[in-house]
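Researcher: Please predict.
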Amino acid sequence: MDSEAITNIGNGFACGLTNYNHNYGLTSRKWEQTVNDRLAALFTENRCSAEREVRYSHSRQKCDLLIDVPLIGKLWLEVKPAWKTWFSSSGRMQSNSLPIYKSYLFGNTAKGLSRTHSFAQDFEKLQILTAEYGRYAGHLLIGFDSEDNPMISDILAVANKLNLSSEGWQMLGPETWADKNCQKCRFHVWFFCKRLRA
């Protein structure tokens, strides 16, 4: 997705993953929607069925993607960005303050600000699923940082705080690469997966 986002955002910079929504002429507020729509399309192109914004049973909350993989089964997938440092459309590096950044990871467990749709709180939604609803629960985390302001230890801290390993979650990643607009900025992708039980 990063390599396909080549729309010029000014100053000779391609939009890339950071400004992925600009590849479709959308504003920055549509980043998550654009990324999730594209993920659904990619799964569909690869012979899976993919639904967006599927409601959890007995809840008003919705899951980003419900993917039905042939011969494997249904995967309930939440997708979340984590913005620590990134190269913006203004042509410079930007960073979230530490309290804001951590609140999007830890949610209500973070000191200072709290959220209702954090990385940690996504796992609370996924934990209510059983084998009645599908085969796997998954979480795709897309992180933005820089060499001088790394985030990998932050993600490990969240995983440890939530006891993901003891809860049956497997962590794959991170897959890391540099932002083509700024070599100091980096993208990371983690995938967390859990087999659903009865």
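Model: The two ends are 35 Å apart (CA to CA).
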